[in-house]
Amino acid sequence: MIHVLLAALCSVLVSVLLKLARRFDIDVGQAVAWNYVATGALTLLVLQPSLQPLRQADAPWLTLAALGLLLPTIFLALAASVHHAGIVRSDAAQRLSLLIPLLAAFTLFGEALAPLKLAGCALGLLALAGMVWRDGRDAGGNGVARWGWPLAVFAGFGLIDVLFKRVAGGGLPLGSALLAVFALALLVDFALQLFRRVRFTMRSALGGLLLGAVNFANILFYLRAHRALPDSPSLVFASMNLGVVALGAVAGVALFRERLSRINAAGLLLALTAIALLALG
């Protein structure tokens, strides 16, 4: 279980680094671009994926291209969500995004609707509503940002999960898929920065490389957790998601003094319950 804990810590640390970026005068757009330099290089060095599957005629390049476009876009949305809505709401929204592939499996692919999964989906949607709830103090544009960005994170990461499942279903090895997606995401994000006409800085590059190292560590430890517990995928799934939501709440409240209303706190508890039900289902 040490790998699950390390994966959850790294996932929350990504949000913490995004939260601290502006404080250290790091341009988030540049940092996300350099993040893919690090993740791509580490994927090559550590996972050593084969390039041969990517040369096959049936390689799912359309899906990989969609992922290459979505990943940097949603990463920037996550950064905006962390900035405006806080780590607690953003990490909960990211983890609740697992509802989207589950709902897609039920409605589009004919998967049997287990009672516990149905209950988990219902509670998850209630949890999302509770987490993004804003009171009268959040009126105006800032209030829209506080619930709009977490919803964008929820929808974006859910769609990314669906696309990765399509890639896996096509038989493309995970390492090869990750390498292709990170390379495409790197090109997309650097193109965005050139369009912004930003002045690249060493501070943002170093911050982005650190972000990428932590991001890759999150992926690596999660994969190793599944390898260490091959007969307990639901345990890894539940522990990872519950750990991220819980640790994100601790980090947000303890380190950054994020304030949650009673409805937000209830949403957080519902999120933990929903994830547990989905794992049991």
Keywords:
281 residues, mainly alpha, 11 helices, 79% helix, globular
Please render the helix and strand layout as text.
Blueprint: H1 2-21, H2 28-47, H3 61-84, H4 87-96, H5 99-107, H6 115-132, H7 141-169, H8 174-196, H9 202-228, H10 233-256, H11 262-280
Helix pairs in contact: 1-3, 1-9, 1-10, 2-3, 2-8, 2-9, 3-4, 3-7, 3-8, 4-6, 4-7, 4-10, 4-11, 5-7, 6-11, 10-11
Transmembrane segments: 59-80, 92-110, 170-192, 204-223, 235-256, 263-280
GO cellular component, one term: membrane
InterPro entries: EamA_dom, EmrE-like
How would you describe the overall organization of this protein?
The protein has 281 residues and is mainly α. It has one domain (2-280). It contains 11 helices and no strands. It has helices at residues 2-21, 28-47, 61-84, 87-96, 99-107, 115-132, 141-169, 174-196, 202-228, 233-256, 262-280. Helix 4 (87-96) packs antiparallel against helix 10. It is globular. The relative contact order is 0.22. The mean pLDDT is 89.
